[in-house]
Structure formats: C-alpha cells, structure tokens
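Ligand: magnesium ion. Inputs:
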Amino acid sequence: MSSDYNDNLWNDVLKELQNNIQPRHYEFWFQNSKILALTDKAVKIQVSNEIIKQKIKENYLEHIKNSLFKCSGNELEIEFICEAKAEQQALFDFEIESEQVSQEVKDSTTYPPINLNSLYTFANFVVGPSNELAHSASVAVAKAPGKAYNPLFLHGAVGLGKTHLLQAICNGLISQGYNQQIVYLSCEEFVNEFISAIEDGNLGGFRYKYRSVSMILIDDIHFLAGKDRTQEEFFHTFNTLYNCHKQIILSSDSPPSEIPELKERLVSRFKWGLVATLDVPGFETRVAIVKKKAKLKNKELPDGICQYISENIVSNIRELEGAVNHLLAMAELHKKEITLDFCKRALKDIIRFNEPEIELSDVLEATIKFFNIKITDLQSKNRQQTVVLPRQVGMYLAKKLTKYSLQEIGAFFGGRDHTTVLHALDKIKELSQTSPRVTESLVEIEKQILEKKY
Ligand code: ADP
Ligand code: MG
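Predicted complex:
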C-alpha cells in the first residue's frame, strides 16, 4: 500500500481512538506513531519506544484492532515496532508499574474462603423472559470460565437476582470440583481493601492478590462511581486478568455507560464481553418464583395465593420472597391454614401500599347494599337493632380495611366518638365467634369491597 494510504488510514484510526481515550493519554501514547507497513492481513505500527509499546499492547490493543477493522475493513494482525529504544520511564509516573513481586508477598497472600449462600444456585433460579439472557450467559461462563464471555456484565435494579446469579456461578464451579482460585467480593470490599493497602503501604500485596486469581466476581461494581484511585487500580487488575484470559464477572445497578463518574476506559472495557440485563419479571415468572420459594421451605402454596402475592408485588423479587417467608411464618405461628383471607391479613402491611386505598365510603356503600338500608339511617343516631348491627359491622370493616383512625371512623358513621367505635369492634368480634350469620356477612361484605376495588 502507498504511504499516503497508510497515513490516511492511520489518521482515521486515531480519530476513532480519540473517542475512547482521554486526550492527555491519547497524545502521550500515540505521538509519533504511524503505519510502517500494511497488507490485508497484517499491519506494522511504529510507536515511540519500548515502554509505550508495552502499554499500548496492554491497554489499547483491542481498541486499535477494532478501529483498524472499522477503517480498513480487514481483521489485521498487529505488530508494533519501536522508533527508539530510549527509556522514558520518568514520564510514566501516572501509569503504574511492571512491579516485581517478591516471594515474600506471594507467600503471605491469603484468600479468605468465599462466603456464599448455598441456596443461590442455578437450580433455585427461576428463568423467564426477564432474565433468560443473563441466566444462560452465567451458565455458559460457569461451564467454561474465561472462554464464553469476558467480561460478563450483569445489570438490573435492586432485588432482581444479580447476586443470586453471581453466586450460582461460584457454587456451580465449586460443586463441579473447580479447584482454582475464585474471588467473589462486593465492590465495597474491594474499595476498602484497597484503601487499607494504601494505609499499610502494602499495594504490592494487594496487586499481586487480585491480579493472580483465576476468576474474579465483583458485585455492585457501580460502587466505583467517583472513586478515581480505585478505578485506576481496578483498571490494571482488569487488564492483567483479561490479558491472561481469566474470567471477570461484574454486576451493577445500571449499564456501564450509565454508571456515574466512571472513567471512560472502564466503561468501554465493561462492554467488551457480554452485557446482560435483568428486568422486572412478568406475572408468570413471579408466580413460579413464589412457588419455588415456598418449595424451598418444604411448603406448597395454593395457586390462588401465589397469584395474589404475584399480582400485588411486582417490581422486586426480594420483596416477593419476603412476603412468602412472612406468610409461611405467620401460618406456622398461628397454626392456621393459608386461605386467601389469611394471606391478605398476614401480608396487609407488605402489600397495602401497592394497592389502591380503601375509603370509608367504599365500606359504607358495600354495607348498606348488603343490609339493604339507607345511608341516612346508617349515619343517623337511630338505635334500632336493624340499623345498629349494620353500623357496627361497617365500623369493624372500616377499621380492618382502611387506614382511618377510630375518631375518623366514628365521625364518619354518624358523629360518634372513638369509644363507640371501640365498643362496636368488641361487639362484632364477639358476634363473629358466636353467630355464623354475622361471620358470613363480614366475609361477604369484605369480598364485595375488595372485588369492587381491585
Ligand atoms: P440483587 O443482587 O439484584 O439486588 P438478589 O440476587 O439479592 O438481587 O436477589 C434478591 C432475592 O431474590 C434473592 O433471595 C434471590 O434468591 C431472589 N431471586 C431473584 N431472582 C430470582 C429468580 N429468578 N429465581 C429465584 N429467586 C430469585
Ligand atoms: Mg446484590
């Protein structure tokens, strides 16, 4: 190829690179660089010196490859040639080391046993359209670490299964007898350990520890936001592991480019492998998860109950699971069978705010309709038994189903004070033990109110 062609191509490549590399780094690495020779299979690129050559290979090789492919249309083998062998070590202060690690550091490196929840397995993970890709990518990585997708980056809102999948990968590998060093930790732990290493003057040990693992999983990597020095450090950890084909798995609450204050070079690296989303699961998946969670406690929940919980807890699987656990615990405690009514009461505090509020007028309307009396009678001072019982039933249900206080309920049911309401509650509680007719009325009116409302 002509040298004009080569120069133009290299200019295009550099323009592409500028989009991905900070300007001050860009100028530093690529000053005096040019294409020396080009075929449709290979390219020789001249760079300033040996150190720059190493660093470019470590940090920008993939970028250059991609840009060359975009601009030339060919997948090219790259060879770097130094312009001069002059060592310009001093200029490299802001980039780190090719550090010698002493035997002592190696010997003293300890990896704490990884702390895993044994229930976070693939078998216990319910797969649906919302998490299919994340799940199958995780399975693939657990089968062939370092080969399938690297890095694997899982993101999704809180409580949607990121930690579960990360730990399922570890649990899966360990149960298959994988005996190499896996490191699983939260990003917060990584940051804290890095800070301690700085304080203790033991950066060498820290670097050796994290750059010599076989596989690293860091949960909640968005915690790196705004932590420049740790980002810098993790950047090098990432490069070393990546270049050695060691598996890197990260989770985050948002996709790489939406993590605030994350250096562009990390954002781009996080996208090199596979980025998979965990979405809010649909209704059917939620029902399956509810069943699974009950089954893990050796319990089976009727379909109606599973559906009720899944209809009302929509956006967070941790809450869904919390509801199942709470319901099972309440049933155990009260030695009660789990009916829909029991479930609604047991989950009242958990589910209430997901539902439309029940108003006093809803209770009033259903009550007068059931007893076939007039509003004016119910709200009057009339003390005839035909009106008193419905009024007391209304007050009882208002207390049970609405958020209003005794005073407010009393005022609404004909200007009565809170002691009258308390008396009504006692009376109805007593009658519901002794009079099947009253119990049936309560069940029926509540059903009417709830059906109309939902
Ligand atoms: P995140 O890390 O995304 O905040 P977790 O992985 O901690 O969420 O999940 C919260 C809870 O929900 C865990 O107990 C987990 O077992 C459960 N969970 C999430 N997704 C699923 C799923 N698809 N199947 C079964 N359980 C799930
Ligand atoms: Mg988590």
